[in-house]
Amino acid sequence: MTTARDDIQHGSSEEPPRDEGGPIPEAGLLGRLISRGGIVFAIGIVLAMLILIQEVVLRYFFNNPTTWAHETTIFLSGIAFVYGGLYCVARNSHIRVVLIYDAVSPKVRRVFDVIISAVCALSSAMFTYAAWIMVGRAAFTPSGEFRLERSGSAWDPVYPGLMKVFLLAVLTVMAVQFLVLTVNYARGKR
């Protein structure tokens, strides 16, 4: 039985195995930076869990809940999930239907990769434009003064406005990452 490494050494046209521990080579420097940034949001999820544990203890053991825990955990979890989409793009770990993709040769897969990345770049750019419009409403008053949208709760943080600005930033980087992937797949760069 031969392995992928044996096939590569003996001139097989199969693609080399990918390192599942990091970004794909086609993602380039941007992909490596995105992958490294993932730890920040993973820590945010752990922090959200700790805040929720603290809230349970304060509420049920001391009958003294906070006003900020719920919205903070939602915000931390939300930005982690938004960043997760970008993280998956850099690591090529997003969900895809591979019924046809796995049945074709590596050369045809490369063509598919170029087309898929180009369509995703265009889609991300359109979502970025929609997010830009949303941020315009969430970050500025009708008179043009900068003021982030607030939650309207008793604590009233600016988390909704921050989330929309963060979404715009992530979608912008995602569109650029898909462009990088499109170019590198088209060039055959690994």
UniProtKB/TrEMBL annotation:
GO cellular component annotations of the record: plasma membrane
Keyword Transmembrane recorded: yes
GO molecular function, one term: transmembrane transporter activity
Cellular localisation: Cell inner membrane
UniProt topology in membrane: Multi-pass membrane protein
Coiled-coil region list: none
Transmembrane regions listed in the UniProt entry: 39-62, 68-90, 111-135, 165-186
Subunit structure: The complex comprises the extracytoplasmic solute receptor protein and the two transmembrane proteins.
Function: Part of the tripartite ATP-independent periplasmic (TRAP) transport system.
Family of this protein: Belongs to the TRAP transporter small permease family.
Official protein name in the record: TRAP transporter small permease protein
Native species: Roseivivax halotolerans
